Amino acid sequence: xxxxxxxxxxxxxxxxxxxxxxxxxxxxxxxxxxxxxxxxxxxxxxxxxxxxxxxxxxxxxxxxxxxxxxxxxxxxxxxxxxxxxxxxxxxxxxxxxxxxxxxxxxxxxxxxxxxxxxxxxxxxxxxxxxxxxxxxxxxxxxxxxxxxxxxxxxxxxxxxxxxxxxxxxxxxxxxxxxxxxxxxxxxxxxxxxxxxxxxxxxxxxxxxxxxxxxxxxxxxxxxxxxxxxxxxxxxxxxxxxxxxxxxxxxxxxxxxxxxxxxxxxxxxxxxxxxxxxxxxxxxxxxxxxxxxxxxxxxxxxxxxxxxxxxxxxxxxxxxxxxxxxxxxxxxxxxxxxx
Length: 338
Fold this sequence. Notes:
mainly beta, Immunoglobulin-like, 3 domains, 9-stranded mixed beta sheet, 6-stranded mixed beta sheet, 1 helix
């Protein structure tokens, strides 16, 4: 009788143990490691490889039963295990045009076996996000220099429509290639640091910080006027343009957004002598261009002025120095902020 009770006790212990193993196997946490970079460079095919390492933690997973799926945009896509690389799965996802962000998660289905009993399991990963970066910048070829210096920005994804800004002031830029764009350091107050960015609002990409140094003193006449462009009081007659050249301007085209500023430089063919020279500037879009009068100071051939964008519009500036036959025409585009 005692032996019979012992037999039943042992049988009960075996059954309880088996059930415990079964329950614990069902509680195993899968190991799903996303191997996809959080930032993806764009490509003309708009196909992006999503990769993950998948290895269920349970020790009794039925071999060959694991199925990995990528869930994106509400659709399930069966992933393929990379040959000769156990546990690494991938899927080539074709992104719709214009998509800049991929939001997805992984789902795995597999079977576990406990004392001959098969059970199916389904597990999920947390939500994953990958951003398709259309452009990025490595940095500036130099982080300081005087006004007028030419500086290069290297990176990728640049276009001929990109603008370069020092804080909110537009700098004259030159499109070199999709991987390089150059700019001339604008005539802003020296011995200050400025944030350099590329692009337009919204979507500006900050490149770094640039410090404008004072210009080198070469003994030549000054080419930058004081911060106050207004002339000193004088009774001397206004200067007229000398023969042998025409008025020029830098940049030759204005393209800014409303409330943004741009330093415009008017360059005379000769250094002004005597009294300040007034550059007569008019426009056919007066509500769109906000600027003071422009003067070239004696001893210089450059008159700088800061213009500010007003009401969005497209038009022209007409700049004429004394004695010139016809005005210099400067195309102007003032774009809305959004």
